[in-house]
Amino acid sequence: MRALVKARVRLKDSEFSVNVHVSDRHLEMNGKNYELSQVSLDIPITGTVYGTLLNFQGSLEALKEQVHHPPYNQPPIGPVLYIKPRNTFSAFAKPIPLPAGVPELEIGASLGIVISKTATRVKKAQAMDYIEGFTIVNDISIPHESVYRPAVRFKARDGFCPIGPWVVTKDSILDPDCLGIRVYINGELRQENTTANLIRPISRLIEDVTDFMTLNAGDVLLVGVPENAPLAKANDHIRIEIDEIGYLENPIIPEEKLAMEGIS
């Protein structure tokens, strides 16, 4: 992991280009060094977040013969997409609400591709020209069985999509198709994978998605969540690391407690 990369951060309604030390808790802004605890990071993206299902080899293999029976009948022949709506968006260090009566949440660590300009029917060879950079997304879900048709009530709750802490420019990343992804819960490593295991690598995913829909500047396309997503409960601390990008941290707090304290 390289120590210093170029990134874009948002602080409330202001944006800055910064130098980011991805391996620790510091960033350089306006010629000064800051610890992340000294700045209030906002959500660094402005568009729609599109999730991708079954794009890690292990996630499709985990279904085994299920994909050959109803309601699936065959493995997917194209990207399986869904939307994380704006109400789900949350920033670095903000609490993830745990709904009443739900014992655990599924932690969905994903690399987010941030689109730089209108992308329609983009070919693989030009796909990188449509990327501003990359960020980290925690695609939170209430555990559920549906795969091809993700239920909104399980994936689109308020605060179920922490994003950040920044957008690292594409030129700062050596190879986005070979980035390690790790999930820590309370400091314990609970999941490890790599974008080298994607069924559709980044350029192919952009080509396949933009063949039938337009992506706009500011939109985020998730590459997918690795198999065996870990579960976390109330008061757990989640840290997602992606090589060359940094880390995204958020606590899980019962929504009743957040309501009582007036925290959002």
TrEMBL record:
GO terms for molecular function: 5-carboxymethyl-2-hydroxymuconate delta-isomerase activity; 5-oxopent-3-ene-1,2,5-tricarboxylate decarboxylase activity; metal ion binding. This is 4-hydroxyphenylacetate isomerase. SUPFAM superfamilies: FAH (SSF56529). It comes from the Bacteria. Transmembrane segments: none annotated. NCBIfam families: HpaG-N-term. It comes from Peribacillus muralis. GO terms for biological process: small molecule metabolic process. InterPro entries: FAH, Fumarylacetoacetase-like_C, Fumarylacetoacetase_C_sf, HPA_isomer/decarb_N. The lineage of its organism: Bacteria, Bacillati, Bacillota, Bacilli, Bacillales. Residues 48-252 form the Fumarylacetoacetase-like C-terminal domain. Belongs to the FAH family. Keywords: Isomerase, Metal-binding.
